[in-house]
Amino acid sequence: MTPDDVRHVVLEELSNIAPEADLALLDPAADLREALDIDSMDHLNFVTALHNRLGVAIPEVDYPRLITLDGAVAYLMADPAIAAKAGIA
Fold first, then answer.
1. Which bin fits 85, alpha (ψ -120 to 50), beta or left (φ > 0)?
2. Which residues neighbour 33 within 8 Å (Cβ) at sequence distance 6 or greater?
């Protein structure tokens, strides 16, 4: 998977959590919880959805690394399984 592929997956899962949000206007460095007005349960559902969709283990200690769009993409791209799919492992 390329970073753009991962970004697309992240945005799709965010649209499931916050369907009313205009993700085209989302600042990639903004705190997703504030920008999309989601609570901690929504964020947990987002992280769980990424885990289920991508098969990436995301320990609770790493949840803060998925607070921004850029952070989520960088975190997921650092996973060896995703990096291998992109041919960058």
1. alpha
2. 39, 40, 42, 43, 67
Distance CA 38, CA 1 (A): 27
Query: Cα(66)–Cα(72) distance, rounded to whole angstroms?
Result: 4
- What digits encode the pLDDT tens for the residues 14-62? 999 999 999 999 999 999 999 999 999 999 999 999 999 999 999 999 9
- Tell me the pTM: 0.91
CA atoms in the 13 A half-sphere facing the CB of 59: 3
- Residue 80 CA to residue 89 CA, distance in Å, equals 6
Residues 6+ apart with CB under 8 A from 20: none
Written as six digits, the tokens of 63 are 């949840």
The full set of domains in the chain, from first to last, is: 3-19+28-86 (1.10.1200.10)
